[in-house]
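Quick one, T. Sequence first:
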Amino acid sequence: MYQRKLFLLSAVFLCVVLFSCKSSHKRVPRTNIGNWKLVKGDLLNIPIDSTVSNTAQTAIDYHKIGDSSFITVGDGNGNNLLVFNLSAKQLRKKIHFQKDGPNGIGKFHVADFIGYDSILVRGDHKHKFYLMDSTGTIKHTYEVKLPGSDEGRPTLATTGCRPMLLNGKIIGLLNPNVNQAEHKYVLTDLPFFVYSGQSAKMLRSVSFPELLKDDHSWPMFEWEPAVCKYKGAIVYTFPVSDSIYVLDVNSEKVKAYGVPDVEGYLLPSPPSEVAVTTWGRAAKSDYLNYLLRYDPFKNVFYRFILHPLEKDANYLDFYSTLVDRPMTIQIIDGDDFTVKGETKLAAKTFFFLDSFVTPDGLYISNNNQANPENQEDFISYTQFKISK
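Structure tokens:
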């Protein structure tokens, strides 16, 4: 009798634990999904020369300078920031960043282009940013070292999460802490910093989603946030989270908006170990809310959601795996964060990291290496317009 009671109590306890774990990762239900679609418009083809690789670029942003429209594109292989005139469909300027010397930055990673005399650049140095001009000259160096901050926490600089100039201030993120003994990130807090005046300070430390706080060896592509500017504020999200967070840089308050996942979404399983094979499977099979773009002209967000690869294939790196996936782009209202519509795009067709927004719509690069229509002599984009 005693053993039976003990078994029943254990079973109840197990059910409570399982229910609690599941509830802690509860997702927003798929309700009130709109029927807006992204429909293909014109092709934008801009000729390039042999010094530029069309599959090694990431769009920085769209700009209006005088009467002309431009996009800035990062060329990491050449250590250049390329400025293309959209109206003339030609390269307007190639801004080269030196690796060595008085204006050396090492390898060019990301930039926030405000104007020809105001380009915020992150190079190899993990704690420095450079304000540069169109000649590649360093005008000012900013060193980000927070009081009491662990030296092992460099600034975070990726395509979807780059430091930004906002209202005269530099705003960015630091990397999570690292457990050196176990070679894994400690995903508890993620500090936003602001550089204003002569030094950097903590703006706000935000929390990772509960799923990521489990003591597991999550790869970077599961936790790396996507960040963008939004109505004078900062918006961020995580690949395994369904929420979009708005950080008010003045009040330092964060507001979370739950956004439904795509149809068929499955929550990623925590990796059991730090291993290339384990992470490789996740790079192929886990659903990821990977990239976020804000469209100030239509007041909507475009959330790029990566689906599992339809066919298993061998890849040499996680990055190539992610780029080749099929994806859904959700159109999310910029006021109430409801999903106005969804559009699915085929695998191995687009290079979604090279995308930008103009008054004419969303443009996504066609220069995926696996796309048979990829032409090496052009950077090519497909225009997508919202159909209601």
